[in-house]
Design brief:
Helix content is 57%, strand content 13%. The chain is an alpha+beta fold.
Length: 463
């Protein structure tokens, strides 16, 4: 059935949650995907429900009218079922004239079937007798199916169009319908003493009071269902926005941190101090590598590298603070501190080195040069919180960040792949309680001079 709303697919601006605009929906791929999924699943459900309902009605009709003329109604039921198939075939998110036509055709066929007498029926009853069977209830089958797939505006359209067609059909029946004056006279003789009873039992009467009652009740039900569908649509858009926000968080935080952020209200706005593992990772000689390569090849190499590094960061419970060109800054213990932040950081560094080696094995097979990385890791106190005025950014600030960066830079002169500060190594020992596999192979070096610091540091290196 058609979407008869405005320019938005299935929704108008009034459908949107607070602070969401039509532009937000148009550019939000999560919302568009949710709308498309909602429409497609709803169409499937609506058509299946229609087919089941029509099958039940087809089986029921011969018991209500055991005559061959009932095949006429079976033919009309088949047409309605076929229209449902076309609705499933052409249904899509957005305005569709075909869907609009199918909706109109759906209601028109149903009105024709219920108002106009069966031409194959041998009985010579007055045409208005069709109203004695209260067939209007079958419109609720279409209305119920419509709630499964369509916008609230379309639900209102079903209610309005049904009421209009039904009343037009009643007027045509009153004006052109075949009546039987003999029955009218007989009923007047039998019930003429009671005008109200005669009006109810008159076989030639269209009973406009009952017809109006039917359409009023139908429109009330349609309006109620439309409001329910509108509330569902708002919930759908809200959930899509939450999924988008969660996906954005997952680009930077590990899954466990995303869960923490999802469970708490604005935890990042709390400025606080605690110890954090900070790690800097960089590709050695990438500038000279990029100078002789096609830009697309350079970007592809970066994507492969960042993808592997990002996977290890999240696998070890870290937070991707930012990309730094061909490198990245990673923190462990943000936004909330854990019990094994230093151990996770060191294990992540070792896993990153292993991932780069696997990457190089694949590159050698195609004749590409190896990618060499350097990693600096430190553990210590930092300040965490949002910075900025209008555009906020979660920041990790402090001397610990500077030391980790300097340690990464020191790997070049020492010709090692990994440098771990003595503070980070000591914290790993406190967390693990013993020398674990992450500490294997680390070599102590005393008196290391780090640029920007007056005192020398004890560091641990891995070639």
């Amino acid at each position: 059935m058609a979407d008869v709303s405005g320019s938005l697919p299935n929704f108008s601006a009034a459908d949107l949650p607070d602070r969401m605009t039509e532009a937000d929906v148009a550019t939000n791929r999560y919302t568009e995907a949710a709308l498309e999924r909602h429409k497609r699943e709803g169409l499937d459900l609506a058509v299946r429900a229609r087919w089941i309902a029509l099958s039940i009605i087809a089986v029921m009709l011969p018991f209500l009218n055991p005559d061959w003329s009932v095949l006429y109604y079976h033919m009309l039921l088949a047409i309605v079922a076929l229209i449902g198939w076309f609705q499933r075939r052409f249904g899509r998110v957005g305005k569709s004239r075909m869907e609009l036509f199918l909706l109109f055709l759906d209601l028109a066929v149903m009105t024709f079937a219920l108002v106009f007498p069966n031409p194959f029926d041998a009985r010579t009853w007055p045409d208005p007798m069709v109203y004695q069977f209260e067939n209007f209830i079958y419109f609720f089958v279409i209305l119920a199916g419509g709630t499964l797939a369509y916008s609230w505006r379309t639900i209102f359209a079903i209610g309005t169009w049904t009421a209009t067609m039904w009343m037009i059909g009643a007027l045509l029946m009153w004006w052109f319908g075949r009546t039987d004056p003999v029955l009218d006279d007989a009923a007047r003789v039998a019930f003429g003493h009671d005008r109200a009873l005669f009006d109810v039992l008159n076989p030639n009467a269209v009973h406009f009071d009952i017809r109006i009652q039917e359409v009023v009740v139908f429109m009330i039900v349609a309006a109620t269902l439309g409001i329910g569908v509108r509330r569902f649509n708002r919930l759908l858009l809200g959930n899509a926005a939450l999924e988008r926000e969660r996906e954005n968080l997952s680009r930077y935080f590990s899954p466990n941190v995303v869960d923490e952020l999802s469970r708490n209200d604005e935890p990042l706005k709390q400025i606080r101090n605690h110890n954090v593992g900070v790690m800097f990772v960089d590709i050695i000689g990438f500038t000279s590598y990029a100078a002789d390569r096609h830009p697309q090849e350079v970007i592809e190499t970066l994507r492969q590298f960042h993808g592997r590094m990002e996977a290890e960061v999240f696998r070890h419970g870290g937070t991707l603070d930012k990309y730094l060109g061909d490198g990245l800054m990673v923190t462990f213990g943000t936004p909330v501190a854990g019990e094994n932040d230093a151990s996770n950081a060191l294990s992540c560094a070792r896993a990153m080195l292993a991932a780069v080696e696997e990457m190089n094995v694949a590159r050698r097979k195609i004749g590409e040069p190896d990618v060499e990385v350097s990693i600096g890791l430190h553990y210590g106190p930092v300040v965490l919180g949002d910075i900025g005025a209008n555009r906020l950014e979660f920041a990790v600030i402090g001397n610990t960040v500077n030391i980790a960066s300097r340690l990464e830079g020191l790997t070049r002169s020492l010709k090692v792949r990994l440098i771990v500060s003595d503070d980070a190594k000591a914290q790993v020992l406190r967390e693990d309680g013993d020398v674990g596999p992450a500490l294997a192979g680390l070599v102590r070096q005393d008196g290391a001079r780090v640029k920007g610091f007056d005192r020398s540091l004890t560091i641990w290196t891995l070639v």
